[in-house]
């Protein structure tokens, strides 16, 4: 049904890093047909997309970077056409899922994302050839088992938009809770409640990125050990909680 030039054009678009779905929508050719041509036609020279510069939407990137360091990963497409960025979001926070979806679309040059439902969570996924460049912390193994350092251009974005970065980290590996305690005053036992924020991550480097950014915006914090490991960052002093509520707030 399609001549050779049409097939080669479709395969050239795939070779540029476009997803089968995107090429199908642009050309009107089914994904199954394009996939079959990849094996039947002579190989089309793959055109490597040029390396991107820092993302233009720096606000969205700062938030997405926080989400990625907490609950994200990048993996190569099995057919070699680009990479997937996946951020895992709990079903309990539909607003967070929407915010993550919007951030991926804002940073992804194709402005696309889709959601994959699993038990108890949704993975928000974006396809793009150069996610490993935009998230160079990508690597084999678990994040807490390897060095996590921001590139200078990433640090510049975090310095410009620190609250978005903090918000992304809290949305991925943090929470806002209400603690309570009891005191006896004048012989009467009274219950007092107060809010606080927690951030928990096994990576010393990621916790340090979080606390360094808190320092820059004037938020006081303490480290709470779980057993012998200092995995938890606590923000409990009232002025700091007020700051966090103004810029971050609870998950939703």
User: Averaging pLDDT over every residue, what do you get?
Assistant: 88
- Strand % is 25-35%
Could you give me the name of the CATH homologous superfamily of the largest domain?
A: Homing endonucleases
What structural category arises from helix and sheet content? Answer: alpha+beta
Q: In which range does the helix fraction lie?
A: 40-55%
Characterise the protein shown here.
This protein is an alpha+beta fold and 252 residues long. The chain has ten helices and eight strands. The chain has helices at 4-15, 20-27, 31-40, 58-71, 94-107, 131-134, 152-160, 162-173, 204-217, 238-247; strands at residues 72-76, 83-90, 114-118, 121-128, 174-185, 188-200, 222-226, 229-235. The strands form two sheets. It has a four-stranded antiparallel beta sheet with strand order 1-2-4-3. The mean pLDDT is 88.
Secondary structure topology:
Layout: H1 4-15, H2 20-27, H3 31-40, H4 58-71, E1 72-76, E2 83-90, H5 94-107, E3 114-118, E4 121-128, H6 131-134, H7 152-160, H8 162-173, E5 174-185, E6 188-200, H9 204-217, E7 222-226, E8 229-235, H10 238-247
Antiparallel strand pairs: 1-2, 2-4, 3-4, 5-6, 6-8, 7-8
Compact description:
With 252 residues, the protein is of the alpha+beta class.
Provide the descriptors you would attach to this structure in a database record.
single chain; 252 residues; alpha+beta; Endonuclease I-creI; 3 domains; 4-stranded antiparallel sheet; 10 helices; 8 strands; 42% helix; elongated
